[in-house]
Amino acid sequence: MAPSPHGRPRRTAFLLSQLGSLSASRFAERTRELGLTPSDAGTLRWIGRNPGLSQRVLADRLGAVPSRVVPLLDSLETRGLVERVRSSTDRRNYELHLTGAGQALLGRLRDVAQEHEGELLAPLTPEESDELARLLARLAEGHGVDVEAHRDTGR
Amino acid sequence: MAPSPHGRPRRTAFLLSQLGSLSASRFAERTRELGLTPSDAGTLRWIGRNPGLSQRVLADRLGAVPSRVVPLLDSLETRGLVERVRSSTDRRNYELHLTGAGQALLGRLRDVAQEHEGELLAPLTPEESDELARLLARLAEGHGVDVEAHRDTGR
DNA sequence: TATTGTTATACTCTATAACTATA
DNA sequence: TATAGTTATAGAGTATAACAATA
């Protein structure tokens, strides 16, 4: 890319990294208030949208390795948020479901996500927020980032 | 924040996290080709801009703890990129400097950063890139993010 | 023989606290 | 007594590979 009009190099990519990190850490603070890590939150989201999915598929969706989701689900199951049900058709794998408590928490999680969104975009006007959303969506599309994928970036 | 005009919740904050993570990991790939971690790169940048600074100050600038910068500098010093010079006025602390090789590598690092910027913004027109830079700068300012600070987010 | 989920292990990254040497 | 830097240790997070159960 060419330098900016004044000859000073642009740092937009770097700024994007910094703000992305800020957004992720602020969101992690909010999920922590719900007793969840960002990985917990992503897992609840995926199971909520795709009830009955297997651990193998969940691992793929999260961009994680199967052994990684074991302690993740152990923790959520212990807290009564998720259930592992043996598949009757293939007894090797589980069908994952949210419990009632899990669904309720997922609802609160969505509220929290919207609050987070509002706080993050507060410095912008509604028009600017719209424009930013458009530009980021275009950038994501150009780089093949799946907007729906919930690959948690961790902290 | 209010939902988007069509009632579907916006995911701009999440998109920002994802793209920030993408930007950081792509940059890490490029620095790795130079034999540097992102932390190495940030350290070279800070010393290059502030020759003679102490490890304590460097740690503050990097947002790290003093014990963290020890192995970082050990590695850079072993590779002949950085020098630790005992301060003559206060023999407790070091004055950090880049060697000639360190300065040369910092130059290549700047080239790499600009290439990275170009690749990342490639899906946008120049006008859109300008607009994105403006919006992100406004967002950073609103949240008190120091644009010059080089707090590396890690991977 | 292949696949799902599990366990055991190890590796990376980082922070905390104790230590030394100077001041 | 306070500060710069160092070392030792421990913790979080994650991946790799071997394993048991089922297909």
What is the chains' assembly state?
homodimer
Query: How large is the radius of gyration of chain A?
Result: 19 Å
Residues in helices of chain A, as a percent range: 55-70%
Q: Which band does the percent of strand residues of chain A land in?
A: 5-15%
Distance between the termini of chain A: 29 Å
Named at the architecture level, the CATH assignment of the domain at 25-110 in chain A is Orthogonal Bundle
Largest interface: A-B, 49 and 49 residues
CATH topology of the domain at 25-110 in chain A: Arc Repressor Mutant, subunit A
InterPro entries (chains A, B): HTH_MarR-typ, MarR/SlyA-like, WH-like_DNA-bd_sf, WH_DNA-bd_sf
Organism (chains A, B): Arthrobacter silviterrae
Protein name (chains A, B): MarR family transcriptional regulator
Domain HTH marR-type (chains A, B): 12-141
Question: If you had to describe this structure to a student in words, what would you say it looks like?
Answer:
Two copies of one chain form a homodimer. The first copy, chain A, is elongated and about 55 Å long. Chain A has a domain at 25-110: Arc Repressor Mutant, subunit A (Orthogonal Bundle), CATH 1.10.10. Chain A starts with 11 loop residues before the first helix and ends in a 13-residue tail after the last helix. Helices cover 61% and strands 6% of the residues of chain A. Chain A is mainly alpha-helical and 155 residues long. Chain A contains six helices and two strands, in the order H-H-H-H-E-E-H-H. In chain A, strands 1-2 form a two-stranded antiparallel ribbon. In chain A, 34% of the residues are buried. Chain A has helices at residues 12-33, 38-49, 55-62, 66-78, 100-121, 126-142; strands spanning 82-86, 94-98. At the A-B interface, helix 1, helix 5 and helix 6 of A face helix 1, helix 5 and helix 6 of B. Chain A binds a DNA duplex (23 and 23 nucleotides) through residues 54-56, 64-70, 90-94, 154-155. Chains A, B: This is MarR family transcriptional regulator. Chains A, B: InterPro entries: HTH_MarR-typ, MarR/SlyA-like, WH-like_DNA-bd_sf, WH_DNA-bd_sf. Chains A, B: Pfam families: MarR_2. Chains A, B: Residues 12-141 form the HTH marR-type domain.
